[in-house]
Design goal:
The protein is an alpha/beta fold and about 260 residues long. The protein has eight helices and seven strands, in the order βαβαβαβαβαβαβαα.
């Protein structure tokens, strides 16, 4: 897909993967509409893109609030004749054992609000526009951690798994009406979000520039799935023999955590 002149809405574009994706997409000629809460950070990203000769529009909004998100989409559609792509990149993550979250249902509610409901909210708001134009592409960001059995991230993984299921339904129901759907399964990426967990300081991670390239690939090539080879293999093994895979990997994750803690 030639991105020149294509209008792309990108959430969570004020830092991390989203910021780098906005810069890369704009460098390929896309008109990038960046959505995030922090107006000052949005302005910084916009200035970077414009200094490099790209085009970017910014929309400060909290997409977990229904009225604000709906109004944001209305404004974007009033300012841009056609929107071609929606990238649901905004997310939050919580690392906490389930037994330490027994009285913290709000952990699950907060992650669902941004990781799932906000993405679905924006998708539903744009679907009539996509269908009227005969085309549209929804790129939903997930994680390799839904492809393998990962402990300690139950709230985060549950929200991403919900988004993946919604994506499959969307593809099945509207794939023959010009609606493309892609899911990007990121491994661990060195971002402000992952950096909040001190234990991951010494873990090997993907850099944000490379990760942003995965989003660009999703937009350009429109595959249903963008993932690593190891993620695809792990997912196949998990589906084929779930008990065996979980029993084998459980001690490995505990060992990894102990080794990372020693490096702190």
């Amino acid at each position: 897909m030639n991105l020149n002149g294509k209008t792309i809405i990108l959430t969570g574009g004020s830092s991390g993967i989203g910021e780098q994706a906005a810069i890369q997409l704009a460098s390929l000629g896309a008109k990038v509409c960046i959505v995030a809460r922090r107006s000052d950070e949005l302005e910084r990203v916009q200035n970077t893109i414009q200094q490099q000769g790209g085009q970017a529009w910014i929309y400060p909004v909290d997409i977990t609030k229904d009225d604000d998100a709906q109004q944001c989409i209305e404004i974007i559609l009033s300012e841009h004749k056609t929107v071609d792509v929606l990238i649901n990149n905004a997310a939050r993550s919580i690392r906490r054992p389930i037994m330490e979250a027994l009285d913290r249902l709000h952990d699950y509610e907060r992650t669902m609000q941004i990781n799932y409901f906000a993405a679905v909210r924006l998708t539903l708001a744009l679907l009539p526009h996509f269908l009227a134009n005969g085309h549209g592409h929804v790129v939903n960001v997930s994680t390799m951690s839904t492809q393998v059995p990962i402990p300690l991230f139950s709230a985060y993984l549950a929200s991403k798994s919900a988004l993946e299921s919604f994506s499959r339904s969307l593809k099945m129901e509207l794939g023959d009406q010009g609606i493309n759907v892609s899911i990007v399964y990121f491994p661990m990426v060195r971002t402000p979000m992952s950096s909040k967990t001190k234990i991951y300081k010494h873990m090997r991670m993907l850099d944000t520039e490379t990760a942003a390239g995965w989003l660009v690939k999703a937009v350009q090539e429109k595959p249903y799935r963008v993932t690593s080879t190891s993620g695809a293999i792990a997912n196949a093994l998990l589906n084929a023999a779930p008990n065996t895979v979980m029993n084998l990997t459980r001690p490995l994750f505990k060992l990894m955590d102990r080794r990372l803690e020693k490096k702190l």
